[in-house]
Specification:
The chain is of the alpha/beta class. It has helices at residues 18-22, 35-46, 51-54, 76-85, 105-117, 135-141, 160-173, 189-192, 200-211, 224-228, 233-253, 258-262, 275-295, 323-337, 357-373, 387-409, 413-419, 421-438, 483-492, 507-523, 547-562, 574-588, 603-608, 621-631, and strands spanning 57-58, 64-65, 92-98, 122-126, 151-155, 180-185, 217-222, 265-271, 306-311, 342-344, 498-503, 527-529, 567-571, 593-596, 611-615. The longest helix is centred in the middle third of the chain and has 23 residues, at 387-409. The protein is globular and about 90 Å long.
Length: 641
C-alpha cells in the first residue's frame, strides 16, 4: 500500500477561452479616462461638502493623500529599490522573555522551552535589572529548550563580553546543535534610560568583540526608547540614525572600520498599531539606511541590516486585557506587511508583567495566524506602491533626515542629548499625544471607550529596573497612554459611585448625549443610572418650561436623591438644554452637576445655577473626570488632573 501524498491533488488547469486567447480589445468598449470629468462628477456628488475633508486621507504630520493619484508618490526606480530591501518569505517569530531573580529560573526555563516548542523562531532574553550574564546560568535556563534550528538573542547592553562568554559556554555545552542569534549590544538604550552616563563602555566591549572575531556580537540600533517616550515617527527614525553615526564613529576610533561594523548591525523599530504609520515607518527606514550606506560608500544591498519590529508597550492597557490581543494583531500585520525581518508581539498581560502562559501563547499564535492563515509571509512587499504609504514614507524620510542634520550640526547625538533639546522636543510631542488620549481623539478601546462596568485591575508584578546613574543626560521617560484613564478607574475602587443621567426631553432628542455620558461614566469608573421618569408626550422645542415639564424636572431631582447619586449629568439636545438646563441644575442642588454638551452663551448662567463642568466631544474628558473624582473625595493621581 503506497503512502498517502503529502499534498492534496491539484485541479487540472482550465482551458482558456478561444476568444480571450485570441485577444480582445477591451479599451474600445469604454471611453478614455478623463480625470477632470471624474473630479467634476465627484464634486457634484459631494453636494457642497469640502473636498479635502471627504475625499483626501489626512496623514500624520499634516500630509494628505489625494483621492485620485495620477502620479506615483515615489519614482519607480526608487520604489523598486526599497522593495528589494524588504523581507522575502516568512519573518522571524521572536518571543521576548525577561531575566528575573535566580529563584525564578525554573519557570523562565520552562517558558523558553514552551515558546520554542510551540513555533517561535527565536527567543530574546532581556536583562531589565542589569544583572549581566553567566555561562552556567544560561546553560541551565536552556536545558530543556530545543535549540536546533532556532535563534537566541541576549540583551547585552549592560555586559557585552559577559553575554558573549555565556553564549560560548552554551555552544560548548551543546556542541551538536546548530542554532543562530547572538548578543545584542545597545550602547544608547541605557544612556536614554538613565542607566548609563555614556555609551563608551558598550562601544569598548563591542569593538573588542569584533576585533577578536566574535561573530555573534551585534550592534543594536533601536528607535524604541524614542517611540516609547512618545516621539513622533520622524524622531524615532532620526534618533536611530544619529545613534548609528555616533556608534560607527566610535567604533572607527577603536579600530573597527564602518564597512566592517555595518555587517554586524541589527535595527529595531516600534509598532504602534497605527497601520499606515507603521508601514510607512518601516519603508522609510529602509530608504534612510540605504542612503546612509551610500554616504559611507556602500551599495544598499551591501549595507542592508536585519530589521526587528517590536510592538510598543505605550499603547497597552491594564484594563480589559484581552483588547491588547487585538492591538497585537494590528501591530503584527504592520510588521509583516511592512517587510520586517523579525517581529515581536507583546502578550496581552504585558502591562501587569504577570507572565501568563495563555497570554504568551496567544501572542505566538497571532504570528502563526498571520503567516499561515493570512499568508503574509508569501507576499513580497505588500505595501509597496500604495500612495498613502509611499507618500507618508517619503515625508518621514525628509523630516527624519532634516532632524538628523540638526543633530549632526549640534555635534552628534551625545552632544545633542547633553544639551537636552531632543528630550524637550520629544516631551512636547508626548504631551500632545497625551492630550489626544485625554480628549478621546485617540481611543483606547476597553478603557477610555467601551469600558466594562465594575471591572477591577488585576494585580501587577513590580518591574525590574537597572539602577539609575548620575552624570548622564536627562533620560527619555517611557509614556503609557492609558495611565490617566487607569488612574480614574483605580480611584473608583470596588464600589463605584453613582452618576445620575438627568435626561430631559423625549428619548429621540436626548439619546445621543445620554449614551455619550453613560460611556464616559463607565470609562471614569462611575456607575451610570438612567432615570425612570416618563417625559411628557407633548413638549415644545422652544420657550420656557411647560407646567408638566417643570413637574418632570422635579421628579428627576427627586429620583437622583433616591438613587443616592454622588453627582448628576444633564443630557438633552441643544434646544431642550437651552430651555431646561437652568431650572434642572437648580433643582439638583446640592449635587455636583455636569452638562453633556457645549454650554454656548449660557455658560456663566449655568455655572451660577450649579453646573460645575461641561463634557463634549473635543473636551479634555479624562481631566474632567479627574476633577469630578476630586469633588467626590476620591484620591486621584496628580498627573491626571
Amino acid at each position: 500500500m503506497s503512502a498517502p501524498d503529502a499534498h492534496p491533488p491539484q485541479p487540472a488547469p482550465a482551458q482558456p477561452d478561444p476568444q480571450i486567447a485570441a485577444g480582445i480589445d477591451l479599451a474600445r468598449w469604454f471611453p478614455p479616462a478623463d480625470p477632470a470629468a471624474w473630479r467634476a462628477a465627484a464634486q457634484a456628488a459631494l453636494k457642497g461638502k469640502a473636498w479635502d475633508k471627504v475625499m483626501e486621507l489626512e496623514l500624520p504630520g499634516g500630509q494628505r493623500a489625494p483621492a485620485l493619484a495620477t502620479a506615483p508618490a515615489l519614482p519607480a526606480t526608487e520604489a523598486l529599490a526599497v522593495s528589494r530591501l524588504c523581507r522575502r518569505g516568512p519573518w522571524e517569530r521572536l518571543s521576548e522573555l525577561s531575566l528575573g531573580a535566580v529563584d525564578e529560573d525554573d519557570a523562565l526555563g520552562a517558558a523558553i522551552a514552551d515558546e520554542l516548542t510551540r513555533g517561535a523562531s527565536s527567543v530574546g532574553l532581556a536583562d531589565p535589572g542589569g544583572q549581566g550574564w553567566a555561562g552556567p546560568r544560561l546553560v541551565r535556563l536552556l536545558a530543556a529548550a530545543p535549540l536546533a534550528g532556532k535563534g537566541l538573542w541576549l540583551d547585552a547592553r549592560h555586559d557585552a563580553e559577559g553575554a558573549l562568554a555565556a553564549l560560548d559556554a552554551l555552544s560548548a555545552a551543546r556542541p551538536a546543535e546548530r542554532w543562530w542569534g547572538g548578543a545584542l549590544v545597545d550602547p544608547w538604550g541605557p544612556l536614554l534610560a538613565g542607566e548609563a552616563a555614556s555609551p563608551s563602555p558598550a562601544h569598548d566591549g563591542l569593538a573588542r568583540a569584533l576585533q577578536q572575531g566574535f561573530d555573534r556580537a551585534r550592534l543594536l540600533l533601536s528607535g524604541l526608547p524614542w517611540a516609547e517616550a512618545g516621539a513622533p515617527p520622524a524622531w524615532e527614525l532620526a534618533g536611530l540614525l544619529a545613534a548609528a553615526l555616533d556608534s560607527l564613529r566610535a567604533l572607527a576610533d577603536r579600530g573597527v572600520a564602518a564597512p566592517h561594523a555595518l555587517g554586524y548591525v541589527r535595527l529595531q523599530l516600534g509598532l504602534s498599531g497605527e497601520l499606515v504609520v507603521d508601514l510607512a515607518k518601516l519603508r522609510a527606514l529602509r530608504r534612510l539606511w540605504a542612503k546612509l550606506g551610500l554616504a559611507l560608500g556602500l551599495t544598499p544591498e551591501a549595507s542592508r541590516a536585519d530589521l526587528h519590529a517590536r510592538q510598543l508597550d505605550r499603547g497597552l492597557c491594564a484594563y480589559d486585557l484581552h483588547s491588547n490581543a487585538l492591538r497585537a494583531t494590528v501591530a503584527g500585520l504592520g510588521g509583516a506587511a511592512g517587510g520586517a525581518d523579525a517581529i515581536s508581539l507583546r502578550p496581552y498581560d504585558a502591562p501587569l508583567r504577570s507572565g501568563l502562559p495563555a497570554a504568551r501563547r496567544l501572542a505566538l499564535h497571532t504570528h502563526l495566524l498571520l503567516e499561515e492563515e493570512g499568508h503574509l509571509g508569501a507576499l513580497d512587499d505588500l505595501a509597496g506602491g500604495a500612495y498613502s504609504v509611499e507618500g507618508l514614507a517619503a515625508g518621514l524620510c525628509a523630516e527624519a533626515w532634516a532632524l538628523l542634520q540638526r543633530i549632526e550640526a549640534a555635534g552628534g547625538l551625545s552632544a545633542a542629548l547633553t544639551a537636552g533639546w531632543p528630550q524637550a522636543e520629544v516631551g512636547a510631542a508626548a504631551a500632545r499625544l497625551q492630550v489626544e488620549v485625554d480628549k478621546r481623539q485617540r481611543t483606547l478601546v476597553g478603557l477610555s471607550e467601551f469600558a466594562w462596568a465594575g471591572e477591577q485591575r488585576p494585580p501587577a508584578r513590580a518591574a525590574l529596573r537597572a539602577p539609575a546613574v548620575a552624570g548622564g543626560p536627562a533620560p527619555l521617560r517611557p509614556l503609557r497612554l492609558a495611565a490617566p484613564w487607569e488612574a480614574l478607574r483605580d480611584a473608583a475602587g470596588a464600589t463605584p459611585q453613582t452618576l445620575f443621567l438627568a435626561c430631559i426631553g423625549p428619548v429621540a432628542r436626548h439619546a445621543a448625549r445620554a449614551g455619550f455620558a453613560e460611556g464616559l461614566a463607565l470609562a471614569g469608573g462611575l456607575r451610570p443610572v438612567r432615570p425612570s421618569v416618563a417625559w411628557p408626550t407633548s413638549t415644545p422645542v422652544e420657550g420656557p418650561a411647560a407646567p408638566d415639564e417643570r413637574a418632570a424636572l422635579q421628579a428627576l431631582a427627586e429620583e437622583a436623591r433616591a438613587q443616592n447619586a454622588a453627582a448628576a449629568i444633564i443630557c438633552g439636545d441643544e434646544a431642550d438644554t437651552a430651555r431646561l438646563a437652568l431650572p434642572l441644575a437648580a433643582a439638583l442642588q446640592p449635587l455636583p452637576v455636569w452638562l453633556a454638551g457645549r454650554p454656548g452663551a449660557d455658560a456663566e448662567a449655568l455655572r451660577a445655577a450649579g453646573v460645575v463642568g461641561f463634557v463634549h466631544v473635543g473636551a479634555p474628558l479624562a481631566s474632567a473626570l479627574a476633577e469630578l473624582h476630586a469633588r467626590l473625595g476620591a484620591a486621584i493621581s496628580p498627573e491626571v488632573r
